[in-house]
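This part of the workshop introduces the protein records we will be handling. To make this concrete, we reproduce a full record directly below:
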Amino acid sequence: MTLVKSVLLSLLLAASALVLPISKAQATPILITDNGQLIGADNINVDGSFFDVRFVDGACADLFGGVCSRSNFTFQTQADGISAAAAIVDQIFNSAAGNPFNLDPSLTFGCSSVVSCQIFIPINIFPGLLLNSAIAGNPTGPNASFGATTNIRATDSLALSSNSVFASFTPSVAATVAEPSAILILLGGIFGLWIKRRQVNN
């Protein structure tokens, strides 16, 4: 019995060791770059849910497989859109003092302006095909901000703008898959011990 308890305790500690680093990884955004240009980030926490975000140039339809429809938007209310904008500002641009992507807007994909970069997060479509978006703003210097929403035509292409780009959000795979894997390892170990104990008793 003592041996079984010792092994079970070891399994629990091992599972904890697996889960804790995963949780830490989920809470730490990972900036994604290409040749020194910021193209997005993984593990962005928006009100407790984790997302991978990529910056996409073009029109609204380019984000959603050719269809600009509110049903395809990750965030569909002003409050949720502003929360997503806040996450971009706090976890990407204001994540560390001296962050070069915060200081120089032109280092963000889709923005060639050295004055400012506005990141659009689609949340609604109004009559007349007006696309309503929350905005994460990153002007030159350490003062990125959020909170505004704006309207553009749903067919407008941000590729024609030097200071704006869309943000595309998808659920983070690491946040939804990794922890259950650790739990399955633990359960498998306990089941194996139970089988072995039954064989010994018989």
